[in-house]
Amino acid sequence: MKKILQEFIISAALFFCIFFVTLQVDWMKLFRLRPTIVGDKLSEWVWKVAESSLWKVNNHDVCVPIDSLVYEMCKANDISMADIHVVINQDNEVNAFATVGNHLIINTALIKKMENESQLCAVIAHEMAHLRLGHIQSAVRQQAVITVFLVLVTGNGNSEMLANMTSKIISNSITRAKENEADEQGARYMYAMHLDPMEMANTLETFESYGILSYLMDHADSKKRAERIRKMHFQKNGPYRRILSQETWDKLKKACQ
Ligand SMILES: [Zn+2]
Question: Which end of the chain has fewer surrounding CB within 10 Å, N or C?
Answer without folding.
Answer: N
